[in-house]
Amino acid sequence: MVRRMFRFETEVDKERRLLLRAALRDTNTASSPALRELRGTPAERETPLQVWAFDADGELAGGLDAHTWATWLHVNLLWVAGHHRGAGLGSRLLDRAEHMARDQHACTNSRVETWDFQAPGFYRQHGYEVVAVIPDYPPGIKEFTLTKRLS
Predict the structure, then answer these.
(1) Which residues are bridge partners to 112 per DSSP?
(2) Helix spans in 9-81 (H)
């Protein structure tokens, strides 16, 4: 067996991260007929999707950060300022993102992760179903993964 020498680095570098993602995506695509079918379609590209809400004073009232890929909307972050909660702003942000994902990016499904003290009930009210629960992530907290069909 030939022992190869490697140099390891731990610095954060956006270009390297993108290179790593592209290399992994290429490897995955080569190994998966379903991913090969996405080649050349709009669903092949990971596309950022963001929705922002500002109040009458121009202050950030809430926002949603997500991306679309492979016919899925993946909600990364959804936040509403405390004094705007309960007025439906979170619902409006989520609804707008789902419509954009469906109408502009041909998404058919959505997914989100949330902790037990955050918003699993909110997402259930919007048609999401729990598909996974990870206990103690982080310690003492449950993480929920929820999905929804967007059709």
Answers:
(1) 75, 146
(2) 14-31, 33-36
Both tokens assigned to 78? 């959804």
pTM for the full predicted model: 0.86
Nearest one of 84, 42, 22, 39 to 59, comparing CA atoms: 84
Residue 75 bridge partners (DSSP):
66, 112
Q: Which helix (H) or strand (E) holds 90?
A: helix 89-105
CA distances to 47, 83, 126, 144 from 121, rounded to whole Å, are: 27, 20, 9, 11
**CATH number for the domain formed by residue range(s) 45-149:** 3.40.630.30
Spans of all domains in the chain: 12-42, 45-149
80-121 confidence digits (pLDDT tens): 999 999 999 999 999 999 999 999 999 999 999 999 999 999
- CB-based contact 73:110 (threshold 8 Å): yes
